[in-house]
From TrEMBL:
UniProt cross-references to PROSITE patterns, sorted A to Z: ADH_ZINC (PS00059)
Protein name, UniProt field: alcohol dehydrogenase
One of the record's GO molecular function terms: alcohol dehydrogenase (NAD+) activity
Keyword line: Metal-binding, NAD, Oxidoreductase, Zinc
Pfam families associated with the record: ADH_N, ADH_zinc_N
Family matches, as CDD domains: CAD3
Biological source species: Podospora pseudocomata
EC supergroup of this enzyme: oxidoreductase
Gene3D superfamilies on file: Medium-chain alcohol dehydrogenases, catalytic domain, NAD(P)-binding Rossmann-like Domain
Location of the Enoyl reductase (ER) domain: 18-352
Length: 356
C-alpha cells in the first residue's frame, strides 16, 4: 500500500542572506532518478549556518531549504529508480551533503566524487533536509538498515559529521597506538571524531574551551583535554600530552575559527599530518616553510567522503562504537540552535524533529 503523501509541508526556508522563516511549501515531486523521503530527523551542522549567512565563496541557491543530515523513510521513487539499486519504498535512508554527482568525470571514476565539478549539494545548491519531505538522488542516499533497529535521530549526525571525521582520520594516516589531536573536540564533529579515533585504536588529545566540553570529551574517550581558554602555551601543552613529548601523529582541525589553523604545525609531530576539515569563513592556513620542510610535516584538506567511506562510517555506528550526544528539538527551534552555534555553546549535536 502506497504511503499517503500530503501536498504541502512545513520547512525552514532561507529567503535572503541571514533571513530564515518557517513556512508552508509544496511537497516536491521526485525526478526520474530521485526518491522522495519523509524526513523525520535532521542534524544541524555548522555548514548550515554558513549557508544561512552565505559567507562562503560558493554560489548558494535562493530561496533555499537548508540541511544535509536528514534521516527518514522512502515514500516514493522516480521512474528510473529500479529495485536493484537497493532503495525501495519503506526503506530507511539518509540525505548526505553530496546530493548528486555526474558519475563519469575523472574524479567520480576514481571514487573521489566529492571533487566532481557537477556535484549538487544538499541544503546549499539544492533544497535539503530542514523540511518534512525532501527529494534526493537514489544513487547517493545513505542506506540505514531498518532490520537492525536504527534510531534515526541518532543516525542523522553520522551522515555528515560522522562521515567527515571518519574520512579525516583515515587521511591523517595515524595508526593504532599513535596520537591524534582533535581541535574542536567538544562540538558535533569533535564528539564523533573522538569516538571514531578511540574505536580505531588511537590515543585522543581533545582541544576545546570550557569545563563542560572537557567533561564531555573525557566521557567520550579522550585521554587528555587541553582547554585553550586556560592554556598559557597551547603548543607545549599538546606536546606534553604525548608519552614522548614529541606531539601527536595527526591533527584534525574542526574548529570554526582561524587561530587553530595557524597553531597546528607547531605541535604536530615531525612527519605528522595536519588535516583541515573545518572551514571558517575567510580563514587562511599559514606555516613556516623551513620548519614544515625539515620536519616533513604534511598539511592536507579532507572534504566529507565517498560512498564507501559512508558505508564504513555507518558500520561503526551500527556496531555501537560511535554515537553522537544529541539534543533533539523541534524544527521550529532552528533559529535558537544557530544562536548557540554563533556563541560556541554547542556541546554534541542538535537534531531537529521535523514534526514539531
Amino acid at each position: 500500500m502506497a504511503p499517503d503523501i500530503p501536498k504541502e509541508q512545513k520547512a525552514q526556508v532561507i529567503t535572503a542572506d541571514g533571513v530564515m522563516t518557517l513556512k508552508t511549501i509544496p511537497v516536491p515531486t521526485p525526478g526520474p532518478q530521485e526518491i522522495l523521503i519523509h524526513i523525520l530527523y535532521s542534524g544541524v551542522c555548522h555548514t548550515d549556518l554558513h549557508a544561512l549567512n552565505n559567507d562562503w565563496p560558493l554560489p548558494r541557491k535562493t530561496p533555499l531549504v537548508g540541511g544535509h543530515e536528514g534521516a527518514g523513510v522512502v515514500v516514493a521513487k522516480g521512474s528510473l529508480v529500479a529495485s536493484g539499486q537497493g532503495v525501495d519504498v519503506g526503506d530507511y535512508v539518509g540525505i548526505p551533503w553530496l546530493n548528486s554527482t555526474c558519475h563519469h568525470c575523472t574524479f567520480c571514476m576514481q571514487a573521489q566524487e566529492m571533487l566532481c565539478s557537477e556535484a549538487q549539494l544538499s541544503g546549499y545548491t539544492v533544497d535539503g533536509s530542514f523540511q518534512q519531505y525532501a527529494v534526493a538522488n537514489a544513487s547517493h542516499v545513505a542506506k540505514l538498515p531498518k532490520d537492525k533497529g536504527v534510531e534515526l535521530d541518532a543516525a542523522a549526525p553520522i551522515l555528515c559529521a560522522g562521515l567527515t571525521v571518519y574520512t579525516g582520520l583515515k587521511q591523517s594516516e595515524a595508526r593504532p597506538g599513535q596520537y591524534v589531536a582533535i581541535v574542536g573536540a567538544g562540538g558535533g564533529l569533535g564528539s564523533l571524531a573522538t569516538q571514531y579515533a578511540k574505536a580505531m585504536g588511537l590515543h585522543v588529545i581533545a582541544i576545546d574551551g570550557g569545563p563542560e566540553k572537557g567533561e564531555s570529551c573525557k566521557k567520550l574517550g579522550a585521554e587528555v583535554y587541553v582547554d585553550y581558554l586556560k592554556s598559557k602555551d597551547l603548543v607545549a601543552d599538546v606536546k606534553a600530552a604525548t608519552a614522548d613529548g614529541l606531539g601527536p601523529h595527526g591533527v584534525l582541525l574542526l574548529a570554526p575559527m582561524e587561530k587553530p589553523f595557524q597553531q597546528a604545525t607547531g605541535y604536530v609531530r615531525s612527519h605528522g599530518t595536519v588535516v583541515c576539515i573545518g572551514m571558517p569563513a575567510g580563514a587562511k592556513v599559514s606555516m613556516p616553510v623551513f620548519d614544515t620542510v625539515v620536519r616533513m610535516v604534511q598539511v592536507k584538506g579532507s572534504y566529507v567522503g565517498n560512498r564507501q567511506d559512508m558505508v564504513e562510517a555507518i558500520d561503526f555506528f551500527l556496531r555501537g562504537l560511535v554515537r553522537a550526544p544529541v539534543k533533539v528539538v523541534g524544527m521550529s527551534e532552528l533559529g535558537g540552535v544557530f544562536d548557540a552555534m554563533r556563541e560556541n555553546k554547542v556541546v554534541g549535536r542538535y537534531v531537529l524533529d521535523t514534526s514539531r
